[in-house]
Every structure is written in structure tokens, then in C-alpha cells.
């Protein structure tokens, strides 16, 4: 009996030892598997983190590119919608200052106004029209800069009609234009001749402008006959006239002597006489919205406005 018990105890001990050995043999494998699993998990997490970082970098790059494109698009849109700078913007506004605004001409007889509707021809060109032949030089209008610059502006236009460009300020300086009177006609014609012909005054039959004074403005006077003759000759030769008249006679309400440039004439229907006279007025106060400074009057009206002036009346 004791022998059997001893054998049983021995058997149990062997089983216990075997179980212990089995437990010890399996533990490192489990740890290795656990470590391996942990490493795999950490590698997986690291890889995922890296991938996530890469994805974030890519996304950030894409967002940056998208943002740049959006900003570029907005800038392009703003650039295309911005108005382009033109010469009339900024300092050079092109706007007429209040002091430079012009008034319309005094009311004009419809038949006289109709005479202004003519073609623009070259120098000395002749245009046939109902009521008589019309001859007018194509002279560029120059507005006088100051109230006393009518003579410099007129001479500047006369020179420009012959292809000679001289600024009216320079002419005013050479003519001795002043604030108290303006310009004496003798000085204006002297400077005109110097630029156009190379000398101050013509001698004998030399080409050049001369001054004339009207004493009798009646239609049958010698003054009238000479004026018409000189007018036709000058215009046909391509040389404008220089007129001085009393402002109050031409423009009611105005005063003082004024200089303008004679640019043409209209003959009567039979071509035997001068019916009307064209002139360009440089004054900013009498510019017409349609015709500018172009005016038309009868020879009698013009000479009647000349005769009361102190200065010689016209240059031819």
C-alpha cells in the first residue's frame, strides 16, 4: 500500500515537472511573438504616420498651389477689370477749366449762318456754292492764351498756314505785348514779316505784309475797293489777312480793339463783287460749339468796325 502511494507521488511529481517544463518552453515564444507583434504594430503605426505626413505634405502643396492659382486668378481678374490709364487721366485730365470755358457767338442771321456750311479746302482752294463762289484758306485755329494775346495768336495762325510754327508766347515776347494795351500792329506785322520773309518790312515790290488804315467804310469808297482787291489777291495766293476791329461793333457788350485772321471771302452770284468775308477769331470768349472761331460778315460790317480803331486796320 505504501509502495503504491509512493509510486503515485512520484508519478505526480513527474507530471508536475513536465508541466513546468512545458510552461517554461512556451514563454519565450510568446514574448517573441508579442515583441514581433508590437514591432509590427509600431512599424505599421510609423508607416501610417509617415504616409499621413506625406499625405499632409502633398495636401499642403496642393492647397498652396490651389491658393496661388486662386490669388493669380483674382489678380488677373482685378487687372483685367482695372481701367487702363489714358492721356486724359491723372494730371492731363483734358477737362476744360471754368476760366477756359467759351461762350457761344451772338445770334447770327440764318442766311449768314448757312454760309458757314462749306467744305474745308486746301490753301487757295475754291468751292462752288449756291449764291456765289467761296474761297477759304484751311487755317488751323489757335486760341489766345490771355486776354491781350489776340495779336500773337493771330500771327501764330498766319505763320502756321504757311507751315511755320511759332508759339504765341514767343511771338508776344518779340512783339512787346504788354498788360496795359496788348500789341501794336506795327510790331505784330514786323515780327510776322521776319518769320515769313526774313526781313522786318518789304521794300518796294518785295513780298511781305503792309499795314493799311480805313478812313471811309462806305461800299463805294476807295478804301472799300482797295480792301476787296487786296483780300481777293491775298487769299488766292494762299496768304491770310490781318484784321483789327472794334469789339463793340462785332460783339455787342464787348469792348476794346481786337485782332483776327482773315481766311476767305464769298463772291456775289454773278462773281462781280465780294459779298461776305470770313475770319477766324482766336478769342476764347467767342468760340462757337459748331463753327469754333470761324465768322462771316459783310465787307461793310467789317470796315465799319475797323474805322473807329486807333491802330492801323488791316495787314495785307
From TrEMBL:
Pfam families: Peptidase_C39_2 (PF13529)
PROSITE patterns to which the protein is assigned, alphabetical: PROKAR_LIPOPROTEIN (PS51257)
Compositional bias segments (type: Basic and acidic residues): 42-52, 60-71, 94-104
Classification via InterPro entries: Peptidase_C39-like
Keyword Membrane assigned: no
Peptidase C39-like domain boundaries: 137-282
Signal sequence bounds: 1-18
Record carries keyword Signal: yes
Annotated stretches, region: Disordered: 22-111
Bias-annotated ranges (Low complexity): 22-41, 72-88
Domain of life: Bacteria
Sorted UniProt keywords: Signal
Name of this protein: C39 family peptidase
Species of provenance: Streptococcus anginosus
Taxonomic classification: Bacteria, Bacillati, Bacillota, Bacilli, Lactobacillales
